[in-house]
Amino acid sequence: MSINLEHISKSYGKVEALKDISFKVHPGELFGLIGPDGAGKTTLFRILTTLLIADEGKANVTDFDVVKDYKSIRKSVGYMPGKFSLYQDLTVEENLTFFATIFGTTIEENYELIKEIYVQIEPFKKRRAGKLSGGMKQKLALCCALIHKPKVLFLDEPTTGVDPVSRKEFWEMLKRLQQKGITILVSTPYMDEAALCDRIALIQDGEILEIDTPINIVKHYPKAIYNIGSKDMYELLQKLKGFENTYTMYPFGEFVHYTDKRDDFNPNELQQYLEENGLKEITIEKTKATIEDTFMELAK
Ligand SMILES: Nc1ncnc2c1ncn2[C@@H]1O[C@H](COP(=O)(O)OP(=O)(O)OP(=O)(O)O)[C@@H](O)[C@H]1O
């Protein structure tokens, strides 16, 4: 097993950041930790990368114990922390050389692994890291996390604050790294990125809500879900809030995702209610649940 957690708990004073967390990540898997701010993702990463000790439970990374074998783990994993971790005053090249040196290696020795990513930032190699764009910083941080050829890669919210094009490119890079045999644990608050993982764990308030493949997670969604559209979104939300049979409703792109309390829900009845309440250009269409819908349902 590449990563194995058994009953891990961690508190900061009265705040229970992680409550009895157990799961496994298989070798070569791209595993996502999906949850909002404060869910406990960073705490989990810090425990697995040996920077923090859990109060209870045990964890292994590549067969090494996170407490007893911390030195071995540090040699065999790469960690890209959530907050920008590079030296802002060093250039791109200097940052990379620095990380290579502390792992007792050189850029040349491991160039093959980072090449594809590094060529994209090479034109800026004399630029200070602090002066790079968000997407460029992220690519440099990934190169630094890979410079010692880790077996397991930990990426804490690597795409937060990065533009959509760079986010897409980043996930394509992760897929290619996975094909090279690297096990990846990645956290993200973006539900669309969750669908790109082999398996995901939905996490909230230090607890795992569900673990499965993205496809199975949405299959478990218990209700029929509808896209409701109208010219006036604000009014639509207000009127749905006042409708006695509304079970859940929340904005989803240009629509509201709606579920009804009843199993024999008739969309025509809702259409009539909304029309009687002055709404115009109403559309009601059945849609498929997304990971976000499942998360909202489980987190209720
Ligand atoms: N050093 C600390 N001292 C006290 N409380 C902390 C500390 N670090 C984290 N917490 C609290 O523990 C909980 C989990 O935080 P954590 O940073 O692990 O979550 P997260 O999912 O990574 O969220 P974020 O993306 O906001 O960092 C939060 O309630 C947070 O406020």
Automatic annotation (TrEMBL):
What region holds the ABC transporter domain?
3-230
> InterPro entries, alphabetically?
AAA+_ATPase (IPR003593), ABC_transporter-like_ATP-bd (IPR003439), ABC_transporter-like_CS (IPR017871), ABC_transporter_ATP-binding (IPR050763), P-loop_NTPase (IPR027417)
One GO molecular-function annotation for this sequence? ATP hydrolysis activity
Q: Does the keyword NAD apply?
A: no
Domain of life from the UniProt record: Bacteria
Report the family membership.
Belongs to the ABC transporter superfamily.
Name of this chain's protein: ABC transporter ATP-binding protein
Lineage of the source organism? Bacteria, Pseudomonadati, Bacteroidota, Flavobacteriia, Flavobacteriales
